[in-house]
Amino acid sequence: MSTRVLVTGASRGIGRAIALRLSKNAQVIALVRKDGDARALADASGGRIGSLMLDLADRIARALVVADAERSFGPIDGLVHAAGLGEHRPLEAVDHAQLDARLELDVLAGVDLARDLARSLRARRAPGSLLFVSSTLAERPAPTTSVYAITKGAVSSMTRALAIELAPDRIRVNALAPGVIDTEMVRAPRLAPGEPMPEGEARKAREDAQIAELAKLHPLGRVGTVQELADAAAFLLEAPFATGTILTLDGGLSLG
Ligand SMILES: NC(=O)c1ccc[n+]([C@@H]2O[C@H](COP(=O)([O-])OP(=O)(O)OC[C@H]3O[C@@H](n4cnc5c(N)ncnc54)[C@H](OP(=O)(O)O)[C@@H]3O)[C@@H](O)[C@H]2O)c1
Hints:
Elements: E1 4-8, H1 13-22, E2 27-32, H2 35-44, E3 49-53, H3 59-73, E4 78-81, H4 96-124, E5 128-133, H5 146-166, E6 171-178, H6 184-187, H7 200-215, H8 226-238, E7 246-249
Parallel strand pairs: 1-2, 1-4, 2-3, 4-5, 5-6, 6-7
NADP nicotinamide-adenine-dinucleotide phosphate binds near residues 56, 180 and 186.
């Protein structure tokens, strides 16, 4: 069982739900960017979630964070990398800045955290468990999702490659592949060029309509919840015979 778990993306959405779920049985160290998020997580978990402040795009700060976390909280044996960016663009609007930002967060930060934690686990001869968040879009892309599909495809490949490499050290590596989950990432209104952002009630109505449209893509007729993802994350993080598993949770989306 993981006793001390590092969770990225814990300020909101899927990462926050995972952090709160895991905090029932383990000590969670959240990597967040804002002081207020750290306080909110501590309050919501009854003090079971501690935090470190980190912009995951900052390579220098990132290189120190596993050692910092272990110095402040004790040896770590679990990692959930749930931070992510969700903007979709048609190919003609894709540029290196968007590609770089997504690769930096999904892939390079994931590799760095995994390598630094694996190094620490090996030095202690301790077993460990790593969990990444891929997407059904890695295997079943849709128009305008090329950058997302590229980076999530890399996350799935990274999961399998690290699983085989780290298995002899009893370090398991798995991933979740969600369909659409109701978070800010998918609620953010997808505007036509030049369209102003709706405000107040109009924005809420627009978000609900967008979620209702996305729900229709799923054979089960709805999008997923962050609690469903958090339960699956807790299962995979602890499942002793699971490694290299990419668990699809998508209401049947990828069957169509
Ligand atoms: N929602 C879905 O339908 C869906 C489906 C498949 C896969 N996923 C994946 O699931 C993961 C979580 O998505 P979500 O829907 O929960 O997204 P979200 O609600 O938009 O949350 C994104 C999280 O990533 C953090 N983050 C972004 N850039 C960061 C950076 N440079 N440094 C540190 N933290 C950073 C955000 O922190 P701040 O609050 O500080 O911005 C936030 O905690 C992502 O990898 C996403 O690609 C989501």
